[in-house]
Amino acid sequence: MSQPNLNLKGYQNVRRIAVLPDSLRHSLEGCDQLPSLPQVVLRVIELARDPQVDLRDMVAAIGSDPALSAQLLSLANTVFYANQNPVEDLQQAVNRLGIERTLSLALGCSLVHTARHRSSAQLNIERYWQRSLVCAMSARLLAERAGLSAESSAIFTAALLQDIGMLGLQSVDGEGYLSLMAQAPDHRTLAQLEREIYGIDHACVGEWLAHRWKLSLRTADWIRSSHQPMFSADTPDQKAKNCIVASGLIADAWLQGEAALSELTTQLSKYFGLETDELLSQLITLQEQLPAVATLFNVRPPEWLDPKRIMHEARMILLERTARLQQDLKQKEQELERLRHEQRELELKTKLDPLTQLYNRDHLEKTLRQALEESRISAKPLSVIFIDLDHFKEVNDRFGHDVGDRVLVELAGILRQVIAEQRVHAGRYGGDEFVLILPGYDTQDARTFAEALRARIASQGLGSDERTQVTASFGLASVDPGTTDQDVESLMRTADHNMYRSKHSGRDRISAA
Known about the structure:
Number of helices: 21
Structural class: alpha+beta
Order of helices and strands: HHHHHHHHHHHHHHHHHEHHEEHEHE
Helix content: 55-70%
Largest sheet: 5 strands, mixed
Shape: rod-shaped
Strand content: 5-15%
């Protein structure tokens, strides 16, 4: 004997039914056109809620309704059970279907029959039940793919009834609700309009009806959650809700046609760990099962969709999406490179002197400190050249600081040219003082380098006017390989001292210790 599985552990102790606005609740309670269930179905619900139910009692209850009995027998022999022997009596049918699926069929068939006789002719009840069947079958398919096979029949029931609240609202508001439906392009928009008008949406009305019929609290909750957003599922209950929410989206897209279904499937597949092609293949298989099930519910199957076109549309969408992603990635890479460039520019600005665009004093000292450490480790020589322009104060005093600045910029240009092919660092130490750091240069190499630079400055001259041509005095200091007692300050003092020796010896010359 199969046992019903209607409630998660502790579920009924923590779930509360939504409270309807008083005016709407009174209207629903007083409406004789509400979707209703015959006594036999109410009895099936009552038995299904009993964890110790004897299937013989359920068979006896269903047997009192010949039409329902015939439908159950038909379902038990549909394509869902094509690989099994045909059932011949109601007992075998209920055994094969199980409690939840028997309940689903009883509910669905009864509600379809009631709705056909009570709903306004202006409500497209055929399309409503087509959508509900697609919802139910899609939800069960997704549940099985999500590892919820044991819950798939219960999920089928909740998905089938997820929009039953629409029939309730249409029963109490007639033309007003039909007008509201006409304004909504999809169910989520409809739910938003319902909340604005009635203070609650049809999913909550569906939950109220499920509670009124004494369906399980879990089923009522799933109905209420049927139009909420999907979330990454980490619990069985959230997985079940995702199946039901997705089923409604699938049904809407299904009824719109191949392109809409293909577009939606490319978005949904990530929630169920499926590739788009795999999910589409499953839905196409589902289409083959729909006619037999629709017949049991006395509903005309939805319009047939072209499987080849569905797959083609999906592939085109994925190709387009891939192209967009690649373009977005390219744009992001370009943006990242731009930001990197800006960062490099910003970092460089912190190292450079604004006027000459050579290293500033802080970065010169950091560079020299690093060069000293490398010299100690590699046992290679290191030299420093201190440069000071001759009579530069007179240039500023006689011709103005603009001319003086131009002289400094011209000197910086010469320094950049002479160090371009060599591993030499140049910077402005302050005012008209410049420093060159020459890793690997001993005293003789540094003197040769400095002499070539001095001669170039003297021959080229600095300043555009002959009256402003400026020479430079040089001071040289070196560190011998293996020296360990030299530091930045002492090395700079030595180079500075030697530069002043050049000044005192007549300028435009080089001095070294």
